[in-house]
């Protein structure tokens, strides 16, 4: 599974990052528990969690390369919403969200940030990411404008800073399945944006 690594920041700019070659990441018996422990170790040694995104992207790619179990964990999208979320690990006090998300073809998310860092790896299908940035004015403090978009394919990984704003759409003929990991969300910093009304509300 080839792939590219991307980083999106709060100013709406995205950049390609150096990706580790898959064959350099091959391990025997590399399972979810080991991945979670290694991510936790990286974060425990970080003054600024966002600065450790390159290391965490590498760990995500290592997990995807080695764990068929993770690649196979998915739910069918809901007929009502077009999406489904499967939580892969849930422990009281554990600060990370680890899940797979399925989008039916044509399903589009709202425009949002995450209020924490995040990394998303595409496992199946094709996903269009549209990027935005805040452009406040005296009249509209929550005004945003679109800055670009990219299409992601299986093997691609995109990472986000806490203030990065985006929306995603599943394109193509098959559902899009992603592996997602997020840090601890600050609920006061997570928003859903409306570019027409120039408004933002807690998400």
Notes on the protein architecture:
The chain is of the alpha+beta class. The protein starts with a strand and ends with a strand. The protein is 16% helix and 37% strand. It has three helices and 13 strands, in the order ββαααβββββββββββ. The mean pLDDT is 95. The chain has a single domain (5-202), classed as Sandwich (Jelly Rolls), CATH 2.60.120.10. The strands form three sheets. It has a seven-stranded mixed beta sheet, with helices on one face. A three-stranded antiparallel beta sheet has the order 5-12-13, with no helix packed on it. The chain has helices at residues 32-44, 53-66, 68-72, and strands spanning 5-8, 14-17, 83-89, 97-103, 111-112, 118-124, 126-134, 144-152, 157-160, 165-171, 176-182, 191-194, 199-202. 32% of the residues are buried.
Short description:
By secondary structure, the chain is α+β, with helices and mostly antiparallel strands. The protein has helices at residues 32-44, 53-66, 68-72; strands at residues 5-8, 14-17, 83-89, 97-103, 111-112, 118-124, 126-134, 144-152, 157-160, 165-171, 176-182, 191-194, 199-202.
List its traits:
203 residues, three-stranded antiparallel β-sheet, globular, alpha+beta, 37% strand
Please tell me how large the radius of gyration is. 17 Å
- Kindly estimate the percentage of residues that lie in beta strands according to DSSP: 35-45%
Give the spatial strand order of the biggest sheet. 2-1-9-6-11-4-3
| Helix percentage | 10-25%
Report the uncertain regions: none
Count of helical stretches: 3
In terms of structural class, how would the helical and strand content be classed? Answer: alpha+beta
User: How many strands appear in the DSSP assignment?
Assistant: 13
- Morphology: globular
Provide the CATH topology: Jelly Rolls
CATH class: Mainly Beta
Write down the domain tally. 1
Intertermini distance:
33 Å
Main pleated sheet: 7 strands, mixed
What is the helix/strand order? EEHHHEEEEEEEEEEE
Based on the coordinates given, report the CATH architecture: Sandwich
Q: What is the name of the CATH superfamily?
A: Jelly Rolls
Indicate the mean pLDDT.
95
